[in-house]
Write a structure and sequence with these properties.
Number of helices: 2
Structural class: alpha+beta
Helix content: 25-40%
Number of strands: 4
Strand order of the largest sheet: 1-2
Strand content: 5-15%
Shape: extended
Largest sheet: 2 strands, parallel
Length: 91
């Protein structure tokens, strides 16, 4: 499933809509998340990726610049920490 806002740049995604679903929110009407089936879970939203990129930027900030040779390793460290849901002995 692909979640986006109504920006025209996402229109090419409609070509592949038969293979996967697509749902949008309309920021222009003040809509940032929508509960389509009324169960209390907002199924349609599109701010998750922006939040992840903000977290990545904040993670990299203390390093004061990262050499592009090692960037992948820093991204892997951030991904591991982001996906870690509980602190265990392995952490």
């Amino acid at each position: 499933m692909v979640y986006t806002d109504d920006w025209n740049g996402y229109n090419p995604l409609r070509r592949n809509q038969r293979q996967r679903g697509k749902a949008t929110v309309n920021h222009g009407q003040g809509e940032f998340a929508r509960d389509d089936d009324g169960d209390g879970v907002r199924e349609v939203h599109c701010d998750t990726m922006e939040g992840i990129w903000t977290g990545m930027r904040n993670f990299l900030r203390p390093f004061r610049g990262v050499n592009k040779v090692y960037l992948e390793q820093y991204v892997i460290m951030f991904e591991w920490a982001h996906n870690l849901k509980t602190v265990t002995d392995a952490f």
